[in-house]
Each structure stands twice: as C-alpha cells, then as structure tokens.
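User: Please predict structures.

Assistant: First:
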Amino acid sequence: MTLKRIIVGGWRNFVRSGLISFATVLIMTVTLSIIGGLIFLSAILTNTLTVIQDKVDVNVYFVTTAPESEILEVKTLLETLPEVRLVTYTSREDALTMFREKHAADDLTLQALNQLGDNPLGATLAIKAKDPAQYEGIVKFLSNSEESEATGVLIDRINYYQNKSVIDRLTGAIAVTEKVGVFVVILFAFASIIIAFSTIRLAIYSARDEITVMRLVGASNMYIRGPFIVAGIISGILAALVALALFYPVAYYAGQTLSVWLGGFNIFNYYVTHFVLLFSTLVLSGIVLGAIASYVAVRRYLHI
C-alpha cells in the first residue's frame, strides 16, 4: 500500500510541478540525446575502423620457382594460427592476369611484359589478422618458417615493413578511440546527473513546506523521498521516449545523405536494427539519472 502511495504521489508531484517537470524532461532529453549520439558515433567509428582494417593486410610474395603445393601448405599452416582471420591465395597466373588488367592502358608496360616471354610474377598470400597489432607476430612466424629443404627460400619478400606505419597508426587509432569513448561517456554521464540534479531540486524546493509538515507528523525518510524519486524516474522515461522519437527523422535523413561519406554505413538502418539496444539504453539511463538526481537532491538539500 505504501509503494502504491509513493508511486501515486510521485505522479502527482510530476503533474503538479508543471513547468519545472517540463524543464526537467527537456534537459534530460538533451542529455539522453547526447548519450544516444555517442552510441551512433561509436557505431560510425567502429565501422570506419573496420573498413580501414579490412584494407590493411600483409602480402607474402613467393619466388617464381616455389611449388604451388608448398605454398598451399604455408597457407594451411597460417590458417591454423589463432591470430589469422583470413588468408587469400593468388596464383602466378592470376597475378599476371590482374597485372595485365591493371595496366591495360599502359602499352609500354605490356610490351615489355610480352618481350619477357615468361611470367615474372610469383604467387602471393594475402593475410588478414583479427587484430592489427598481431601482424608483427605473424611476420615473425613466417620468417622462422621461410626455409624449405626442397626448394631453398620459398618466400621472396613480405611487405609488412612497408605497411608497418599504416598498421601502427591504425592500432593506435583503435586504442585512442576506445579510451576517448569511455572518457566521453563518463564525462557526459556525470554532467547529466549534475544538470538533472539542478533542475529537479527546484521541484523539491517548491514543495519544502509540504515536506516540513510530513516530517512533523512522523513520515519516514523513504516515504518523503519516494515521490520525488518516482517523479525523477517519470521524467527520465519521458525524456528517453522523446529522444528516441527525435532520433527517427534525424537518422532517416542522415542515412540517406551520409551513407556514401561513411563508407556505406547507413545510420537509419542501424537505428532500426539496434532499436532495442537504443531503447533499453536510453530508458535505463533516464531512470538511473532521474532516480540518482532526485535522491541526491533530497538528501543534500533537505538533510533527510
């Protein structure tokens, strides 16, 4: 019965506060919109890093005399490594075909190639790691496995060191993005509590006389705090719903106009497919922010 009274009292406080409740919902909507924006930003950055990561690989170039069977053995061996995500084999013939297609408009290069009379290109293995930081370990593994008793040196060269600066920058970018993301989330969460707290305490201050009377008649601390906490939770839930509604047209417009600039990432598709995640995150954040801000405001300013 007490719980029901607290909930009813919280709703009455929310409705009775009127303009203050509206201001609280408005400020919390901005706060939750920022949190939602960080979710979208995180998805965009993750997609961008994934696209860049997919373009970075290590190519192993084999000598022209390397038997295909031994190259495929190396490929199989690489695929057993837990660090390796994908290994793509390109034969000598395929490499020559791609070279001709790439230089189709360069007659001088094609003439020089035809004069050789033989395929000067060796087979290659393109290695993609699960994590850019793991390429160095894969290259060391290959360096220890370079020698073959039957054919001498199988591997002509590995382009890891040519790509090392790009790989290092990518690894650093991923690490920095993760750290900055966590810092920004904590910063905005803290700012959100402060802003919501400042607004909610206005409602509490306006009801100070009522609270004084309740204390004089022996009302418990929880009975006094409860309605304000419930009102804060209501504000948080309404703010979350408003923020979700605002994200719909914004995500729809951004999905149509920014998809090309974001490497094919469609923000609206992300909004639709991850709606449950967005809904639960924003509603839960609204509930937590409203409850904490209300609790702290009552505790600090009314000395309950």
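Second:
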Amino acid sequence: MSDADVSIGVAGALGPAAIARIAEAVEAAGLHALWVNDTAGGDALAALDAAAAATSGLTLATGVLALDRRPAREIAARVRDLPQERVVLGVGSGATRRGALDLVREGVAVLRAATTARVMVGALGPRMRALAAEEADGPLLSWLTPALAAEQTASARTAGASASLYVRTALDPAATERLAAEAARYGSFPAYAANFSRLGIAAEDTVLAPGTFADGIRAYRTAADEVVLRAIVAGDEVDAYVRFVEDAATRV
C-alpha cells in the first residue's frame, strides 16, 4: 500500500482571515488538504470561502459539520459557489443520539443530490462507519492507533470507499502540555470514553508528540488513505500554525 496523503487540520474558531493565511501555507508546502473543524465560535463554511479565495488548487474540507446544527440543505446552499472539485464535506450526527444514523443518511443523500463535492462522515462506531463507506465517500476516523486505523480503513475499502484519519499532533515541545490536555478532554466525553473502552485504548495512545512523530507518522501513513495532522500549537497565533505547516512538510 502506498503512503497516505498528509493534510492539516485546524479549528474554525481561528476565523476566516487566519485560516486563509494557513491555507496559503498548506498549498505552498505541497500538502494535500486543509480541514477545518466547525468548532464553537467558528464557522467552517466561512473559513472555506476565505481559503478558496486564497488558494488555487488546494483541497478544502470540513471536519465535521454537525447535521443537528447545520441542516444539509443549508450546507449545500452555502457551498454552491465554491469550486466543487476541491471541496470535501465532512459531516456528522453532532449531539444526536436517537436517530443519528437516519439523520446522517438523509443528510448525505441531500448533499449528494445538491452538490458534486465529496462527502465524508465522521464515524466512531461500526454502524456509522458502514453507512459512511456504503452511502458516502467514506469515513472520517479519529482517535485511533495505527493498527486500529488500518483495520477500519480496510473495512471501508472493501465497500469501495476511502478513509481519512485525524491525528492530534504537536511538533513543538512547547505544545506538549496542550496536546495532553486535548487528549484528556476528549477522554472525558461520554461517547469517546465509551469508544476508547470498547477499543481497549486511551486517547493518549493515538496522538503524535514531538518525540514520537517520526515513527508515528510512518505508521499512520500506511494505515489510512489520508492522514490529517490536527495541529496543536502552543498558542493560537497564525504564525504558530504556519510554522507547524512548514515543519510538518519537511518531516513527511
């Protein structure tokens, strides 16, 4: 299997202007894509608008848009003017528990009918991963060890889909404490805690720290079709993210 593409992920809360600058750096570095999380206080779709205007060929993705907060028809309307061949719409069920599969299935169908963008589904459990592989372009995976990522990617490929994988990553030793806090935060969320327990791993087993990056990125690049380095930096200055991008590009 060939090595996976490497992309960068950031939070939408950074704002469109900052994300446009980061997108320019990602494209200049020759990395595959920029993924923008639709985080509280941010707007991933506004960020994609700004990033599209600042770049010429970079793949632009959302990871993920919660369909309980952003109806699929609203998403489709907002991305209509973006270069569809460059857009990946990562969607998920958000806080929905009962009816989550139906919500995502219906949302994927709407987006497929209304856009020509690729559609990926944020998926933890086996039923959502199966839906992602069978009805969308594949699952967006996260918080997995390389071995588990390889197993879940293989399952997606069996259905003719591909798998992208988020990996929380710090390259600057000054960001190590923040990386540990991010792992602890996700480990405290009930849905993620249950998934970690089911898989027999801990959140900290799935991150890339400065001292483990070289070996870890090699393992992850053979485990998925795309590895998204979710950038963890010491502070949220744009220059820190640009340095992350440039550093990552020299190491992969």
